[in-house]
Structures are given as structure tokens and as C-alpha cells.
């Protein structure tokens, strides 16, 4: 499995679309380099609006632009967008339902890894999920990010796209389809246990399902790339089939994809759901793989959780 | 309109606000009064608008950054014909289209959500850039309070607007030296504020915000400057022309009684019907 940047893939998609639509503009709070938007800037220098290191301003400027019919895409780090400019997203974009796209870098521990807590963001999905009217996409790798970005731009309204460090494992063949608003079965060895995964942790989920298979447990792996609106019917159908599940994400324990899965389970098909994520602590700086292992997201953690989920069936 | 007509309209709007807040039983009347003359000039003379087509792309834009003064904006929109005057007493009720603070989708004529203080200039900057990029020949007008200039985002937007040389952005500072909790000069070190806008490379003027001709002239001067955004510092009086509200911050948010509506009507009688 190679490594390919979700940042580059996303900006390539935006640039491809921008060639067809001159209303697409990028709003940058000094994030052009970080978001790999340099090629866009070179090709369309007048369509990158640099506001300086000022995320709140960036989001409000995007709101103003959207009211004039422009199609602004705000690029920044996930936490600076969803925390520092949280209210601007909620009140000035989500509430009026403006057509603004938000791209958040460094999603999760893996996103910020060696930078430390100030640049690791595991609250973004929870924060945005609590806002009416914001759609959330967490693609699993660069190929999916490219397609997700294109799908996002077809939606009229606020959408948040969660990206990583730019060093994401490539897990799916490039032609793998992406459908906004739908879960996707990645692999299925059987209905012993469902594994729901979201984002750049997908490689570990795949490894875990293979290990389970080797140990005689037949699991089904589901990619939950659209966290909001969640494909509730699809999730409920998987829960009915498997009757127990693991939900794994690089996000804090509260508010993210695994919380959303449990909300569906409570309503449609109550069963045991073991959740794997950051257990409500602030982690440390570290090499990406070591960091995930240290904070409960090792392949073995997923395997163990799956077996535990099955224990009550 | 003549200067006198615009003054009378400003006072007409002031009385509309007193009656609206009385009928609704809730709202911020005091902060409306200091912007009445600016609103009168903008809506009844200066701005290019089409009430029959509120989202006409070529229109001028208006951002009431101090969104709590929206009863004044609603009165102006109603008198322009965006919606019926009958809507005014339904302010802040489930039956009405007039929200407690401006709403982009429920009320015709509103160009943006506002009311969370500090955001209006950044949003206005986005509008100014969007219009310029689409070669729309228009202006974006923002009214910002003085108190809300304590918000950091005001100065983020000030920097970015100067960098982008948006000559089509004209900001009025409603400088009445009052905010919710008291005097601006007691709560912060904002003043002298015109110097700050100059230091941020804006075109700056200081005027009497209740002088119709001064407001007109300041707009004309601002329009001559095409490579800088404009800040017009308007010296104003909170509660202006309503005797019991003038300089009395208790009227920041308070409902006038029926008697107080009558007092306002009497006070404005000459100014309205003379």
C-alpha cells in the first residue's frame, strides 16, 4: 500500500472544476501552501483570496462572497476552522444555508501527529455534526478525497471535507466509486460482526478484518465516508445483518462517526456497538503509526473490540 | 429627496421603531435611533435597490453589523415596500417574518444574517469582492457600532479589506459611545478610533451622524476613493430625538409603554408633520 496526499487530490479536483466554473474561488487564511493550492494559485491568481492568518475573517468573507453567487472554498486547518471560526460557520454559513465549502486539514491524531495537540484535531466532526445544515465527508484516502471533493462541489450548501496530513495510506484502487450520503461495503467475509470505519484509519480496519478472518471471524467492513447526513437506512440494514458492530475513527470518543452509528443503533436496531477512537484525552506528539497504536487505535485493538462485540450475541 | 424630506423620513422611522417595539413588547429601540439619519440617506436616496426584486444581482448591498438595531432596518424596508407595514408589530413572533436579529431567508431585503457582533465588515468585504469579481458596478454599505469594534474580527477584516483595495466598501461607524454594559470609553480603550482606521490604510472621515448633508457629502467623498475602503466615523447620540431615550443607556433594550409612545409621537410631531 502506497501513500498519497488527500490534500493534493482534493485541490486537483477543485482545480479541475474551477477550469469549468469561474465562480469557484479559494479563500485562504495563509493556507495556500498547506492545502497544496499552489497550482490553483498559479493558474488562477485572481481567484485565490488571501486574508492573512485570520480564519474567522476567512469564513465571513466566504459568506459574503456566497451571497453574491460566487462559490467559495475555504481552506484551513480543521481545528482553526471548526473551533476558532466555529460561530462564523454556524451563524453566517450554516444558518442562512450559503453555498460555502470548508476544507479542514490535519483531521485526527494522524493528521497532526508530530505537531502535537495544537495541530491535531479530533473534535471537528462532533462540532459540525451538532450544527443544523452542515454536511460532513471524511474520505478514506486520496482517491476517495478526489471524488469526494467533486461530489461536494455539486451540493448547493455548506459541506465540510475532512483531510489529513498529506501522508495518507492509499487503500482503495483509484476507480473505486464514491457516492455522497451512502455507506459502502468495502469487504464482507460474513455477518459475524460489522466494522464501521471512517477516514484515514481505513487501512487499519482492513488489516483488522483480514486478521479476524484468519482467526475464523467473518466480518463485514463498511466505509462511512459521509458522516452527515448519515445513511441511517444503510447502517441499520448492516446492524440487522450482523447484530453487533465495531465503529472505528480517528476522532474523540464523543460526537463523531461512532456516536452517529450508536444513535442509529438505538433507534433502529439496538445491539452491542464497541467504539474505538480517542478516549477523551489529549494525546502527545509522535510518529503517526506509533501514536495511533499508543492511543487505542492499533489493529489489535480493532480485532479485540470485534471479538468483544460478538461476545453478547 | 430634499434634506428636509430625508430628515423627516429619519424621524418617521424613529417613530416606527418606538411603535414596533411597543407592539412587539421586545427589542432594542435605543440603538436604532442613532443610525436613523444614515439609514434614511442610504435607503431613500443613495442605494440602488429594487424592492420588487430583493435579490437583484446588480443592487447595492447593506449590512447592519449591529444587527440588534434591526427594527430600524425593518421600518426602512417596510416603507420601501419590501413587505407590508403590518409586519412591524409582529416583530419577534412566530407569526411574523421579522426575526429578533436579521435573517437572510425569512425577510425580503436582508442581504445577510447579522447581530453576532463584529462580523459585518468581513461579510461586507466578501460581498465587495464578489461583486467586483463579477464586474457589478455597485457599493456595499456597512453600519458597525462603536462598541462592537472591540471584537478582534473587525481588525482582521480591516487588514484584509485594505489589502484587497475594495473601493466599493463603505463602512459607517455609529459612534454613540454606548454599548450594552455602559460607556464604550469606560469599557475599552477603543477611542480615538478614527486614527486606528487610518493606520489600517482606510480612507477615513469624521462627521456628525445626524447631519443629512454631511452624510451625503461623506458618501460622495468615499466614492471618489477607488483603491481604499472607506470608514466614516459618525458622531451620534444613542436614543437620538426620543427625549427619554437620548443618552440613556437603559433604553438599549427596553419596551416603551403606551404613554412613552405618545411622548415620542409628540416630540417628533413637529419634525414629522411641520
Topology summary:
The complex is a heterodimer of chains A (313) and B (274).
Chain A: E1 3-4, H1 6-18, E2 24-28, H2 38-43, E3 48-50, H3 55-67, E4 71-77, H4 78-84, H5 86-94, E5 101-105, H6 108-112, H7 124-129, E6 135-137, H8 142-153, E7 159-162, E8 168-169, E9 184-188, E10 193-198, H9 202-214, E11 219-223, E12 226-228, H10 232-242, E13 244-252, H11 257-268, E14 272-278, H12 288-294, H13 299-310
Parallel strand pairs in A: 2-3, 2-4, 4-5, 5-7, 6-7, 10-11, 10-13, 13-14
Antiparallel strand pairs in A: 1-8, 6-12, 9-11
Helix pairs in contact in A: 1-8, 3-5, 9-13, 10-11
Chain B: H1 3-24, H2 30-33, H3 36-46, E1 61-64, H4 70-80, H5 120-133, E2 140-145, H6 152-163, E3 169-175, E4 178-179, E5 182-183, H7 184-187, H8 194-199, E6 203-208, H9 212-224, E7 230-235, H10 258-273
Parallel strand pairs in B: 1-2, 2-3, 3-7, 6-7
Antiparallel strand pairs in B: 4-5
Helix pairs in contact in B: 1-3, 1-4, 1-10, 3-4, 5-6
Net shape of chain A:
globular
Low-confidence stretches of chain A: none
Largest interface between protein chains, with number of residues from each side: A-B, 30 and 31 residues
Largest sheet of chain B: 5 strands, parallel
Distance between the termini of chain B: 16 Å
Radius of gyration from the alpha-carbon trace of chain B, in angstroms: 17 Å
Number of helices of chain B: 10
Low-confidence parts of chain B lasting 5 or more residues at pLDDT below 50? Answer: none
Instruction: List how many beta strands of chain B DSSP finds.
Output: 7
- Secondary structure: helix percent of chain B: 40-55%
Q: What number is the mean pLDDT of chain B?
A: 97
- For the largest beta sheet of chain A, what order do the strands appear in spatially? 3-2-4-5-7-6-12
Compute the separation of the termini of chain A in Å. 34 Å
Run of helices and strands of chain B: HHHEHHEHEEEHHEHEH
**Overall pLDDT level of chain A:** 96
What is the oligomeric state here?
heterodimer
Shape descriptor of chain B reads: globular
Largest sheet of chain A, described in full? 7 strands, mixed
Query: Given the helix and strand composition of chain A, which structural class is it?
Result: alpha/beta
Amino acid at each position: 500500500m502506497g501513500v498519497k496526499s488527500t490534500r493534493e487530490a482534493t485541490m486537483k479536483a477543485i482545480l479541475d472544476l474551477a477550469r469549468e466554473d469561474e465562480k469557484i474561488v479559494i479563500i485562504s487564511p495563509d493556507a495556500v501552501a498547506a492545502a497544496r493550492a499552489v497550482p490553483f494559485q498559479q493558474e488562477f491568481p485572481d481567484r485565490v483570496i488571501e486574508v492573512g492568518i485570520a480564519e474567522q475573517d476567512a469564513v465571513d468573507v466566504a459568506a459574503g462572497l456566497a451571497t453574491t453567487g460566487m462559490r467559495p472554498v475555504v481552506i484551513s486547518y480543521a481545528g482553526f476552522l471548526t473551533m476558532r471560526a466555529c460561530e462564523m460557520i454556524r451563524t453566517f454559513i450554516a444558518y442562512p444555508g450559503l453555498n460555502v465549502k470548508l476544507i479542514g486539514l490535519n483531521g485526527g491524531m494522524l493528521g497532526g501527529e508530530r505537531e502535537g495537540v495544537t495541530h491535531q484535531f479530533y473534535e471537528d466532526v462532533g462540532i459540525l455534526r451538532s450544527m443544523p445544515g452542515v454536511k460532513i465527508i471524511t474520505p478514506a484516502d486520496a482517491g476517495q478525497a478526489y471524488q469526494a471533493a467533486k461530489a461536494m462541489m455539486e451540493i448547493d450548501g455548506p459541506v465540510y471535507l475532512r483531510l489529513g496530513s498529506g501522508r495518507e495510506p492509499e487503500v482503495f484502487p483509484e476507480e473505486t466509486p464514491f457516492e455522497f450520503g451512502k455507506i459502502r461495503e468495502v469487504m464482507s467475509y460474513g455477518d459475524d460482526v460489522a466494522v464501521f470505519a471512517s477516514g484515514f484509519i481505513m487501512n487499519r480496519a482492513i488489516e483488522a478484518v483480514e486478521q479476524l478472518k484468519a482467526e475464523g471471524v467473518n466480518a463485514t467492513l463498511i466505509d462511512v465516508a459521509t458522516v452527515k447526513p448519515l445513511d441511517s437506512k444503510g447502517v441499520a440494514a448492516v446492524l440487522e445483518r450482523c447484530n453487533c458492530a465495531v465503529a472505528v475513527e480517528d476522532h474523540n470518543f464523543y460526537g463523531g462517526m461512532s456516536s452517529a452509528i450508536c444513535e442509529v443503533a438505538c433507534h433502529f436496531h439496538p445491539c452491542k456497538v464497541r467504539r474505538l477512537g480517542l478516549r477523551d484525552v489529549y494525546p502527545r506528539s509522535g510518529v503517526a503509526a506509533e501514536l495511533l497504536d499508543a492511543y487505542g487505535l492499533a489493529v489489535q485493538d480493532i480485532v479485540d473490540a470485534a471479538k468483544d462485540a460478538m461476545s453478547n450475541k | 429627496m430634499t434634506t428636509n424630506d430625508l430628515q423627516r423620513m429619519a424621524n418617521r422611522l424613529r417613530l416606527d421603531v418606538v411603535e414596533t417595539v411597543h407592539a412587539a413588547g421586545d427589542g432594542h429601540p435605543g440603538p436604532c435611533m442613532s443610525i436613523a439619519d444614515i439609514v434614511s440617506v442610504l435607503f431613500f436616496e443613495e442605494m440602488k435597490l429594487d424592492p420588487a426584486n430583493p435579490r437583484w444581482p446588480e443592487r447595492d448591498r447593506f449590512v447592519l453589523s449591529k444587527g440588534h438595531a434591526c427594527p430600524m432596518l425593518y421600518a426602512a424596508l417596510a416603507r420601501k415596500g419590501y413587505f407590508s407595514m403590518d409586519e412591524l408589530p409582529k416583530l419577534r413572533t412566530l407569526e411574523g417574518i421579522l426575526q429578533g436579529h436579521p435573517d437572510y431567508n425569512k425577510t425580503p431585503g436582508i442581504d445577510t444574517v447579522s447581530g453576532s457582533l463584529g462580523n459585518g465588515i468581513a461579510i461586507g468585504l466578501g460581498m465587495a469582492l464578489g461583486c467586483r469579481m463579477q464586474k457589478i458596478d455597485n457599493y456595499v454599505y456597512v453600519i458597525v457600532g462603536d462598541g462592537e469594534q472591540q471584537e478582534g474580527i473587525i481588525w482582521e477584516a480591516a487588514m484584509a479589506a485594505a489589502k484587497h483595495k475594495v473601493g466599493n466598501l463603505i463602512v459607517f461607524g455609529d459612534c454613540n459611545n454606548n454599548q450594552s454594559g455602559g460607556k464604550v470609553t469606560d469599557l475599552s480603550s477603543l477611542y480615538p478610533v478614527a486614527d486606528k482606521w487610518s493606520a489600517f490604510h482606510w480612507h477615513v472621515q469624521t462627521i456628525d451622524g445626524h447631519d443629512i448633508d454631511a452624510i451625503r457629502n461623506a458618501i460622495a467623498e468615499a466614492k471618489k476613493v477607488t483603491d481604499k475602503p472607506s470608514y466614516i466615523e459618525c458622531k451620534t447620540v444613542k436614543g437620538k430625538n426620543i427625549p427619554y431615550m437620548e443618552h440613556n443607556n437603559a433604553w438599549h433594550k427596553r419596551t416603551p409603554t403606551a404613554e412613552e409612545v405618545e411622548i415620542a409621537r409628540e416630540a417628533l410631531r413637529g419634525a414629522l408633520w411641520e
